[in-house]
Write a structure and sequence with these properties.
- With 71 residues, the protein is an alpha+beta fold.
- Helices cover 39% and strands 23% of the residues.
- The protein has 2 helices and 3 strands, in the order H-E-H-E-E.
- It has helices at residues 2-15, 27-40; strands at residues 17-21, 44-49, 52-56.
- The chain has a 3-stranded antiparallel sheet with strand order 1-3-2.
- It is globular, with a radius of gyration of 12 Å.
- The protein starts with a helix and ends in a 15-residue tail after the last strand.
- The mean pLDDT is 93.
C-alpha cells in the first residue's frame, strides 16, 4: 500500500539500510515483491533471505558518522 511505501522511504532517509518482512509466497513471488519494493522506494535490494528483504538507499544528507561506508 502507499502508506507502507511512504513508511519505508522515511526509514531509508533516516537509516539508509532497512529490513522489511514481506508476505508469504513462493520464492519467485518473494523475489518479485522485493524487486518491486526496491523500485518503488528508489533503493537497492541488498539481500533476500526467506521473507526478509534488506533495502539500501544512500542519503548524503546524514551526518558522516550515521552513514554506511563500504570498504
Amino acid at each position: 500500500s502507499e502508506s507502507v511505501i511512504k513508511g519505508i522511504q522515511t526509514l531509508l532517509e533516516q537509516h539508509e539500510l532497512v529490513k522489511v518482512r514481506i508476505p508469504q509466497g513462493g520464492g519467485d513471488e518473494r523475489t518479485a515483491m522485493a524487486e518491486e519494493l526496491a523500485s518503488l522506494t528508489q533503493s537497492q535490494r541488498v539481500a533476500l533471505v526467506g521473507r526478509m528483504v534488506l533495502l539500501y538507499r544512500a542519503n548524503e544528507q546524514l551526518p558522516d558518522k550515521r552513514r554506511i561506508h563500504f570498504a
